Amino acid sequence: MPELPEVHGLCTYLDTQLHGAVLTSVRINSIAALKTADPPYSTLEGRTIQGTQRFGKFISLDADGLFFVFHLAKAGWVRYTEHPSAAGLRMGKSNIAARLLLHRQADDAHIGLDLTEAGTKKSLAIYVVRDPLDVPGIATLGPEPLSPDFDENALAAILKTSSQQIKGLLRSQSIIAGIGNAYSDEILHAAKISPFAIAKTIDGETVQRLYDAMQEVLVGAVNAAAGKPSSELKDTKRSNFRVHARTGLPCPVCGDTVREVSFADTSLQYCATCQTHGKILADRRTSRFLK
User: Fold this and answer.
1) pLDDT at 290
2) SS3 for 237?
3) What per-residue confidence (pLDDT) applies to 152?
4) What's the rounded Cα separation, in Å, for the pair 150 and 191?
């Protein structure tokens, strides 16, 4: 799933490519993906893209005060092209959920944007709204972890009242915006914290370590994504992981084997030496897990 760094990089890239371009055609190929009916998506046509903004994992295109907002969910992505196809889309017959065709007047270029989603479980979401805050998922977002207002005291205030496991808390968009499964693994590894530690039991020194790790991991990933076209962002993300999606490989910090805990539809990765004092976390499917 694209998370804050990739969505930020994608947003910046799209802003560079689309700013000032006129939407000539908006095609929705997956009715299930479109979550709004008023205003109609056809009213976007003829409008000029004034800017692109990120809200957590959402991207919003400002089309003269009307907003095309999308969330890529687990398997969605954006395919940008300088040579868009004018061929019609067969409803529900491809992995393309939506296609935007634009005319960039500055260089008289015709460009295109496809929102795609792999797999059979479709969760990609599209909204056409008068205000991004009309999107429920944006209206309920927690603070941005890279915002100047989000410091170690803000993080400590969040943790001290929560009985959640820290892994789940970091992934909760209503608590902290933009962090998902991958970067929560990376942050907890950098902070040397068990994914199953209870948030309110984390002491002050460890909170500081968690905050520092959050900044280090996210800023590093944002910088790595900067300037990359959408076609390169996925590989950039994977190339910088230390534990996520590296089950069975050596931890780059201590050399221990990276281990995994599997759930019904996801998994987490961690290093026992770095994060749990050498204790192996039991798989939730078969046993109790370590606190």
Assistant:
1) 45
2) helix
3) 97
4) 17
Which residues of the chain, if any, have pLDDT below 70? Answer: 92-93, 284-291
The span from the CA of 41 to the CA of 23, in Å, is 11
Question: Sign of the CA dihedral 278, 284, 287, 290?
Answer: positive
Contact yes or no for 191/212 (Cβ under 8 A) = yes
Extended strands (E) in 8-74: 21-28, 49-55, 58-63, 66-71
Q: Are 81 and 67 in contact (CB under 8 A)?
A: no
Are 32 and 122 contacting, i.e. CB atoms less than 8 angstroms apart?
yes
Res 111: pLDDT: 97
The rounded distance, in Å, linking the Cα atoms of 174 and 138 is 9
| Per-residue pLDDT at 92 | 62
Rounded to whole angstroms, how far apart are CA atoms 270 and 242? 9
- pLDDT for residue 284: 56
Q: Return the SS3 of 227.
A: coil
Q: What is the DSSP string of 122-158?
A: ---EEEEESSGGGSHHHHT----TTSTT--HHHHHHH
d(CA 116, CA 139): 25
100: number of CA atoms within 13 Å, CB side?
29
Report pLDDT for 234: 86
Rg for the chain, CA atoms, rounded: 20
Q: What is the pTM of this model?
A: 0.93
Whose tokens are 């608590």? That residue is 175
What is the DSSP annotation of 32-49?
Answer: TTB---SS-GGGGTTPBE
Asked if residues 144 and 178 have their Cβ atoms less than 8 Å apart, the reply is: yes
Distances in whole angstroms, Cα of residue 189 to Cα of each of 10, 73, 257: 26, 24, 13
